[in-house]
Amino acid sequence: MSCRRQCVLLSMLLAGVLSGCSSSLGKPGPNSVTLAPAQILDFGQLYSANCAGCHGVSGRGGAAIAVANPVYLAIADDAVIRKVVSNGVPGTAMPAFAQSAGGMLTDQQIEIIAKGVRSRWGSPVPGRGLPSYAPQSASNAARGQIAYATFCEPCHGPGGRGGAKGSSIVDPSFLALVSDQGLRTIVLAGRSELGAPDFRADVPGRAMTEQEVTDVVAWVASHRVGDLGKPPADGAKSKQ
User: Fold this and answer.
1) Residue 76: which of 214, 184, 218 has the closest Cα?
2) Helix (H, G, I), strand (E, B) or coil at 203
3) Are residues 154 and 208 in the same domain?
4) CA dist list (Å): 119 to 43, 58, 105
């Protein structure tokens, strides 16, 4: 090896050593620090880690309803979304995420999720007099059966037992996993990812009224079977 080549190699080696000495041994680089869970304030990260598994990667629905749904977001305000995320829905698959309720998210993180869902996926819904998120009057299951026949039976079949376009909505296992409010939300917002229309499109040109929505939910909920799906009380033995 020529003397000149040896000098070049020696210079490169020395430069590498000196550059390594310019940073502290063991000190992480500026992009290698991992944030603690409570420090994550990016909507995308929070939604992906806590919501996408059920509500879909882009909020388009999955095991649970779509939240990227303008009708849903027009009916459910920020306080409603914040409450659901914080406290969950007892008796259903929706868990509580707030630290105060046993979850992992701070109040700030929940606020970011609530506002981020609306800012990304909310848009004005045509028409006036949207039904309320929660019922505003007493329900009547008998009237609900009549409303069901008008608006729901073409898809879900006679008695709600399923039809060519929709599954059974009186199945005991289904009803054990959904709250009355969950039923109302589905009737109002639909499930577009499953082909289920919202309250305005069940019958062309004839939207459901506030009272009809309330009554249909009461009729569907009347098919629940006792405490199906609930564990036995402490000390009680399950029947074989």
Assistant:
1) 184
2) strand
3) yes
4) 11, 13, 20
